[in-house]
Each structure stands twice: as structure tokens, then as C-alpha cells.
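So, can you check this record?

>
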Amino acid sequence: MSLWDSSLATGNPGFDQVHEATLGRMEEVLEAIADEDATRTEQLLGELAAEVSRHFDEEEAEAGAGYLTKEHREGHRLFVAELERLRDAFSRRGLGRRCPSG
């Protein structure tokens, strides 16, 4: 499975390379979850969070005026917030399955 496709390209080869690698890291997280490997999942989620944070900071610092729209910056913020929500949920529940209530 590949999460990257050319429709996600920004036109900036450096940014696109990082975006593709980030999606590759997300695929690794999904594989670790599917393998029920909690240790690897936790490690990969931490690496993903660090990579994303570093890249977004670099992208926002290096991008020329007008490159990053308000919506693009908001997308960064939402992505980081969701990733942190997922990491928090993982730290509380691990890979445990939710039992149906009732």
C-alpha cells in the first residue's frame, strides 16, 4: 500500500520528498499496528511526530511569501493535533481492542 500519489505534490521537490517519506513512515506505523507490535508502534509514532514537527517548522520558515496559505498552515496545525491525540490514545490504551458496550 502506498499513501503517496502525485496529486499530493506541492511542486517543491524538497518538500514533496519529505511528504512522501512521511507518508511512508505512516505506512510503517500501520504495519506495526497490524502486526500488534506495541513497542514498534510507539517508537514509530514518536519518530513520525518528531519528523512532522521538524518538517512543518522548516517548511513554514523556508517557504516564500504566499506559498503557504492560511489553510495550509491550518492543515499543519490540525495534522499535528490529530497525531498528538493518537499518540495520547495509544499511551493510554496501547493496541488493546475496544470491547463493545452493553
